[in-house]
Design a protein that fits this description.
Shape: globular
Number of strands: 10
Strand order of the largest sheet: 1-2-4-3
Largest sheet: 4 strands, mixed
Number of helices: 4
Distance between the termini: 20 Å
Structural class: alpha+beta
């Protein structure tokens, strides 16, 4: 089996990002975005998706967290797109309904090559640590469009912003892990069109 790894470097006037991803990893995370709660969420993504992720972000945090988080989403989406390669033998679809204490979230993915993003849910607080909660939606939006994936996320219930955010990141990890799994019964790409 070919290694499903990728590396992405992204440099703008606002951020400089270096990222490496292994879809068939061992839960190894080396993450430094300068935003503590975001690092915590990405560490959970890595561990619950069984990925390896190395990430360093130097961003204009003196402005706010927007550019660092959005550009990380763009870089991670690009890394996912590269790592899945031609998608032959891949399950393509993944979903997870995940409980986190009082919170229940849903995530469903189709790695179809066609980006679409749907997000339902509101957070009771504007920030979690130094991270703006509105950036959670922006992060996953950026992933869906740069990865070329159909991504649906819903906060079904919950009252605690930390639990809601953590549930979303973990559910995304579980759904992505499922969608990127290889199945020996799938000899080409899983599509009636013959391509994705």
């Amino acid at each position: 089996m070919a290694e499903r790894k990728s590396q992405v470097t992204r440099k703008t006037r606002e951020t400089e990002i270096k990222l490496s991803l292994n879809l068939d990893g061992h839960c190894t995370a080396q993450i430094d975005t300068g935003i503590g709660f975001f690092d915590h969420m990405l560490d959970g993504f890595t561990r619950h998706g069984m990925f390896d992720l190395t990430l360093s972000v130097a961003g204009d945090l003196i402005v706010d967290t927007h550019h660092s988080i959005e550009d990380t989403g763009i870089a991670l989406g690009s890394a996912i797109r590269k790592a899945v390669g031609n998608k032959k033998g891949m399950k393509r679809y993944g979903s997870c309904i995940l409980p986190m204490d009082e919170t229940l979230v849903l995530c469903a993915i189709d790695i179809s090559g066609r980006p679409y993003f749907s997000f339902e849910g509101t957070f009771p607080t504007e920030k979690i640590g130094y991270m703006d909660t509105e950036m959670i939606r922006e992060f996953f939006y950026a992933i869906s469009y740069s990865a070329g994936m159909n991504l649906h996320m819903k906060i079904l219930s919950g009252t605690n912003s930390h639990h809601m955010a953590e549930g979303l990141f973990k559910a995304f990890a579980k759904a992505l892990d499922e969608a990127t799994q290889l199945d020996p019964r799938i000899t080409d790409v899983l599509s009636t069109k013959g391509s994705l």
